[in-house]
Structures are given as structure tokens and as C-alpha cells.
């Protein structure tokens, strides 16, 4: 049970793996405990050599001090590589709202770091980007939006990171999410009676509160309260119905 699990060689191997691979590498749950035990052992040996005046002891002490510096240097490199990967993971999660982010390779302390970073990335994205979408000045809130509100908005806005923004004509109202092209603008004034293009929307009635969200047309919808009804893009309607937030109205309503 008293076996030393960390050596200079194992630390080199861990560093090499972090450098070679883009994804965060899995470490033993006891990694921090093992590293601390290893460092304390080295420092204890150095302290023992301080009381010895022999030339041999001095040489051993210098060797141990060099090894200790090497260990610290490797630990710093490992930490900074993992730090960058965790920051990239948090940034990717905040930008895309993806629910398939893998955090299983994070140590407990790293997971806490990740969650704190993600919280502030989301807060500033809400306080700056989404405020601008609404035509408001940036406002950074100290209190985060509720987890439920964040999760719904992540789901609804994740498509913004994968599609090019639409260019809206000044006469357009909404843009259909199923099309990659803007809706044609109304016919020239020579045909004033020509109808505007029809939008295929789904009518729903809300049965739970729904926070405001930004859709692919970069417009803000909501918030909605129970009992309210609206016509909305089919994919948004399907999502809200699937989450138990709304129900579809019959075609004749």
C-alpha cells in the first residue's frame, strides 16, 4: 500500500500524453495526493542533507534540488496544458450550448474550475451579446440566470454557432428556419396587391413559463406565461412541446 505511484518518469509520461493529444487526458483520482507525497519525500531528503557537511552529501543535496526543480517545472507544464484544454472546453460549451461535452477526464478541482469559468462566460454572453440582439446596452448581472432558463436558451440558440446570419430586408418580418435563403422581399410598388410570402408556423399554447430566447433570425421571442398562445417556427414548437412547456393547438384554432 505504501508503493510510490509518482516518479519523475511518470510525470514525464503524463506531460508527453497531454502534449500529444488534443483531448484532456484521464488522471488517477489519487494524482494530487500522490504528487504531494512525492514532493514531501524529496523535500525531506533535501532537509536531511542540510545537516551533513560531507562533500558527498552536498553533491546529493544539489542533485535532489535539481530533481525537485524539474518536478515543479513538469507540474507547471502539465497544469497549463490542462488549464488551456479546460478553458477551450468551457468556451465551446458556452458558444454552442452542446449537452455532449465530456468532463469525465477532469479532476474534482478542475471540474469546479470549469463550472466557474462556464458560469462567467455564460453571464457575459447573456449580458453583452443577447442584450445587443435585443437592441439594449450591455448589462452584466451578478446573479446568473436560472439553470432552467440557461438550458432552454442554450438549446434554442445552439444553431446560431453553426449557421451564417441571415440578411433581412427592411420589409421582412421573420425568416423561416428551414431555409438558408432570405424570404424574397415584396413585389415592387407596381404590384401593390401582391401578397407577402407566407410563413409556415405552428400555433401553440404555453402551459409553463418560458424565458425569452433568441432564434436563428437573431430576434428575441418571449418571455411567455402559462395560458398565452403564439405562432412559432415548427422546430421551436416541437422542442417546447417535447419539454412539456407548451401544447399544440388544433389546426382550426
Descriptive labels:
253 residues, mainly alpha, Methane Monooxygenase Hydroxylase, Chain G, domain 1, Ribosomal Protein L9, domain 1, 2 domains, 3-stranded antiparallel beta sheet, two-stranded antiparallel ribbon, 6 helices, 5 strands, 48% helix, 6% strand
Question: What features would you describe in this structure?
Answer:
- With 253 residues, the chain is mainly alpha-helical.
- The chain folds into two domains: 8-111, Up-down Bundle (Methane Monooxygenase Hydroxylase, Chain G, domain 1), CATH 1.20.58; 164-190 and 197-253, Ribosomal Protein L9, domain 1, CATH 3.40.5.50.
- The protein is built from six helices and five strands.
- The chain has helices at 8-20, 31-50, 55-96, 108-133, 147-157, 234-242; strands at residues 202-206, 213-214, 220-221, 229-232, 246-248.
- The chain has a three-stranded antiparallel sheet with strand order 4-1-5, covered by helices on one side. Strands 2-3 form a two-stranded antiparallel sheet.
- Strand 2 (213-214) and strand 3 (220-221) form a beta hairpin.
- Helix 2 runs antiparallel to helix 3 and helix 3 packs parallel to helix 4.
- The model is unreliable at 159-198 (pLDDT under 50).
What can be said about this structure in brief?
The protein is mainly α. 48% of the residues lie in helices and 6% in strands.
Amino acid at each position: 500500500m505504501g508503493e510510490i505511484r509518482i516518479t519523475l518518469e511518470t510525470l514525464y509520461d503524463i506531460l508527453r500524453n497531454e502534449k500529444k493529444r488534443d483531448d484532456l487526458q484521464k488522471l488517477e483520482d489519487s494524482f494530487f495526493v500522490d504528487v504531494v507525497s512525492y514532493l514531501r519525500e524529496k523535500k525531506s531528503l533535501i532537509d536531511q542533507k542540510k545537516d551533513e557537511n560531507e562533500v558527498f552529501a552536498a553533491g546529493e543535496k544539489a542533485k535532489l534540488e535539481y530533481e525537485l526543480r524539474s518536478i515543479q517545472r513538469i507540474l507547471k507544464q502539465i497544469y497549463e496544458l490542462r488549464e488551456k484544454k479546460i478553458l477551450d472546453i468551457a468556451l465551446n460549451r458556452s458558444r454552442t450550448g452542446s449537452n455532449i461535452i465530456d468532463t469525465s477526464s477532469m479532476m474534482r478541482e478542475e471540474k469546479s474550475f470549469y463550472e466557474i469559468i462556464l458560469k462567467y462566460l455564460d453571464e457575459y454572453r447573456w449580458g453583452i451579446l443577447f442584450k445587443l440582439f435585443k437592441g439594449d446596452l450591455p448589462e452584466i448581472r451578478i446573479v446568473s440566470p436560472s439553470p432552467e432558463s440557461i438550458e432552454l436558451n442554450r438549446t434554442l440558440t445552439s444553431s446560431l454557432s453553426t449557421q451564417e446570419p441571415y440578411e433581412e430586408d427592411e420589409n421582412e418580418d421573420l425568416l423561416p428556419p428551414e431555409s438558408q435563403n432570405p424570404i424574397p422581399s415584396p413585389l415592387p410598388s407596381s404590384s401593390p396587391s401582391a401578397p407577402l410570402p407566407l410563413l409556415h408556423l405552428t400555433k401553440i399554447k404555453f402551459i409553463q413559463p418560458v424565458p425569452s430566447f433568441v432564434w436563428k433570425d437573431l430576434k428575441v421571442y418571449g418571455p411567455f406565461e402559462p395560458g398565452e398562445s403564439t405562432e412559432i417556427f415548427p422546430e421551436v414548437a416541437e422542442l417546447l412541446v417535447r419539454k412539456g412547456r407548451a401544447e399544440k393547438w388544433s389546426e382550426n384554432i
